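Bumping with the actual sequence this time:
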Amino acid sequence: MTDPSSISRWLTYRQSEIDGAATYHALAELESQPQLKQVYASLAKSEDDHVAFWETKLKEAAATFPPPRPSLRSRILVFLARRLGPSFVVPTLAMHEQAARNEYDDQPEAREAKLSNSEHSHARLLTAIASAKGAGMEGGALARLEGRHRSIGGNALRAAVLGANDGLCSTLSLVMGVAGAGQPSPNVLIAGLAGILAGACAMAMGEWLSVQSARELAQSQLAVEEAELREAPEEEQHELALIYQAKGLPKPEAESLAAKLIADKTTALDTLAREELGLNPEELGGSAWEAAIASFFLFIVGAIAPILPFFFLTGPTAIIGSLLASTVALFLIGFAITLMTGRSVLFTGTRQVLIGLAAAAITFGVGHLIGKLFGLTIAA
């Protein structure tokens, strides 16, 4: 006799698949893009097959179950899709698929029927579709899905500008805060140097952890993809075909291309990694140590301007020199930002200067207040 807990679990899974099928059928009906309509129809059929699987299990256990009826949540999503368009609900569906993608991983009967592979496939595909601005796969979303057309230079420039900006703004604020408290110039210089070292180390550590974590996640995803390719190549081929359909290829061409790519065992995993995961297996996010070292020195480069005058000047002259040097550096960083945004150099540079000086003024004021309150003022 079947365990009642198993029957309850199967009923829950059946209802979840009924909800998914109803939603995808509605999206397939509403979608105007032919290729994406076929993708939704394929997802709906997959969910229908899952419903049939759980109903077969329930029948074998002589369990009763009601006629298929979508839940209130599913009906609301369909209502919203009909009123506001498929693209309005796709992000919600993607989040749900991501949350439920591991639901079958520890269920023996589901693993045997390859339901777990299907759920992982659905999660990846919905996430890719949701990344588009509309219901279709266009423009930058396609580039992100493909894992190609990534502007390596642009990303490096962005990292360099932000790293230097962090060093400049944090050090300028620190220097002005200590100077505002009335500390002599040597003390300001020592505090600035200590702040640079602490900030650069923190930036390097944070960057190392970020890149290393991304690499480990990518390696884990590749391992899962490799296992799925080995255990269920037909499912991976089907998923790849759906992705190409979502990009706009007609179904026959998408299926033919997917079949050719999966048949080549030497490049199949590389193709799946790029198309499904948006990963470059040869890079996996780059070297964590290189990123950490680069962040360390970029922070220092940005931090030089605020403390440089304190090596040669003292008192108010050093403070004014620090502000002037920082103003020039802030404007240059604003100029570098325009290389990424395309905005006016004057506008972006001035905005950067105003923001940086505003932060410096605030910390100078706070430092001055603290110096007065706690009697820290010392003649320069």
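The tokens above came from a reply further down the thread. The radius of gyration is 29 Å.
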